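Hey team,

Filing this mostly as a record. A colleague (T.K.) asked me to run one chain through the structure pipeline before their review meeting, and I want the input and output archived in the tracker in case anyone asks later how it was produced. No errors, nothing strange. Just documentation.

Input sequence:
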Amino acid sequence: MKTRSVEETASINGKCTEVLVPEMSYHRMAVANGQDAGLAWELLVRGNLVGGERDRVEKALLEYCGQDTLALIKLVERLQVSINLTLANAG
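Output structure:
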C-alpha cells in the first residue's frame, strides 16, 4: 500500500510522533499512515478481497490501528510530562 501525501506530514502519527515519541515507528508496516488505513478499510468493506489477501489486509490494518492508538497514548503522556515540568518551573 505505501502511499505518501501532504496530509501525512501534518498527521499526529507523522511528525508529532517522530519528534516526541521517536521509539514509535510506522516505517516497516504494510499499513503505514492514515491514507493507507483508509484504503485498506475500503478494500475490506467492499468485499473485493478473498482468502489470504483479505486476512493479510485485515491483519495489517489491525496492526496499524494498534500502533496508532499506542502512539497517541505515548504522545499524551509525553505532553503531560512536558506541561508538568513547565508548570513546576513557572511556579
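Quick notes for T.K.: Confidence is low (pLDDT under 50) at residues 4-8. Helices lie at 6-9, 12-20, 34-46, 51-90.
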